[in-house]
């Protein structure tokens, strides 16, 4: 029993110990989990208070100390930067306010000065108005408006003048009667009927017919010989006939003196000889023509009177106009051959000159034999051809019978059509002057010259002594190359050194000269008259008014409604002026036109667009002027005295500020550009009307709407 009781007592003690241990462990765990965090919290919160404000770690801190954190420091820097900028802006605002105040003061001062300047300007305008009024009064007193002088008619019984000392002494101031040609005469020309003199029946029928047609179309020809300024006699070309031998020089002189208006010495007479052949008949050689001038294609040095006689072009197209559609184009500049020449020098031919003994052509040659460079020319040109540096064509022997020519002159080869075909593929065309230095002009050389100009081959004349047609008025250097014969060895280098731009300019100028002055019989006759008229400084007659076929057209929308046409660019000349229009004064400058612009009419093609002053009296313009070019637009030219609107009147003198003007446009198959150009004319000051020259064989399209610019478009 004690063993068992002892066993029980012994076994209960460990259990109690285990329970006590478990209770102690639970208490310790509770203490650690509950009181230890509290104690730690209290300890941590009291560390900063024990260590002072500078050693706080977890306690609350002031606002400035929060900037020690990185992100807070960035915010602080931004705040400081913004504060500085605000201060700077405030300073600038105050500075600008001060500047505005100062500017306001200056504005007030400027306003006061402007008012003062307006008062001064008003006073100056009054002074100017008074000065202009005084100036007009003085001009009216000292320079009264002059009317045209009364036309002086020559005396019917003209006694004439003493004959000149020699045939070579005739010049315009010694052998021409200016009294018969006053400035206001209009340059009347009387042409003798070919049936009124003996040799008129022997003239070439084609030449007579072409000459008669040209006379009918001229504005200067008159039927009244009593008022004529110039008398023209057609003396050639005479038709060769074995049955009727030519008259002797003595007989020709008698026949000339028998003309009804010859008046002893033939002053103010012009003897015209038109050639159709290379071998022309110089039957006036050794014929005393008195004070009558001679116009022909062939002249000898002792026969030609510089400044009095005229070298004219041969009559290539007698009755038919050239076919301009077959004329080759201007480009390309370089053609197949660099230069070509086809000719044969026939020494056996004899001159057809009708000379009186003892003065014969051979005797004239023996007086001063010229240096003959023909052998050197032949050798040099053949050497260039054989070198094959450039493709050239030179032939000194005709394949067929050569044309008849004067002695020492190179005869033409083949027919004219064959020669033109060769020239169409030639950049340059050589024209070798006759070997006789006394032969200053010949029909054969002139034919070579104008055949080259017709097809665009630039003529190269070898021989600087040659007189080209109208050389005293036309600047042939712009279309022809003149080379002395001694420079034949340098010819190849010279032709290759010319630039393409210069070649094209010379070709274009040559085409202009040929078409304007030499292409038809009418142009040749008009050029002869214009040469005389320009030499004696008489203004050209007004251009005849010819009714043109008006093309019907219908107006569409008002101009200016198209948004694309809002910006007119340089053509926007301001609002329409309100002053009433009036007619232009007469164009008085025409009476000095020929004296001031002698060469301008002959050597410069007018532009395509023109402005003419609107006046009841048509402006007097040269009848020889031709309006070339195509396109649409306009440009002002000198015409009328005054201007057209503020801009034009300032550019043209400014003495007539209300003068109206007419716009002339030339167009060719450019309808859209034309319509745009017409719309730009809407509101143009002082515009009277618009004339559109339709340069096309096709009429405008039927659905084309023309703009309504408030003015007539014809």
UniProtKB/TrEMBL annotation:
Taxonomic superkingdom: Eukaryota
GO biological process: heparan sulfate proteoglycan biosynthetic process
Location of the Glycosyl transferase domain: 661-713
Pfam families recorded: Exostosin_GT47, Glyco_transf_64
Transmembrane feature ranges: 21-44
Molecular function per GO: transferase activity
InterPro entries documented for this protein: Exostosin (IPR004263), Exostosin_GT47 (IPR040911), GT64_dom (IPR015338), Nucleotide-diphossugar_trans (IPR029044)
Keywords, comma-separated and alphabetical: Coiled coil, Disulfide bond, Endoplasmic reticulum, Membrane, Transferase, Transmembrane, Transmembrane helix
Family label: Belongs to the glycosyltransferase 47 family.
The protein's name: Exostosin-like 3
Organism annotation: Cirrhinus mrigala
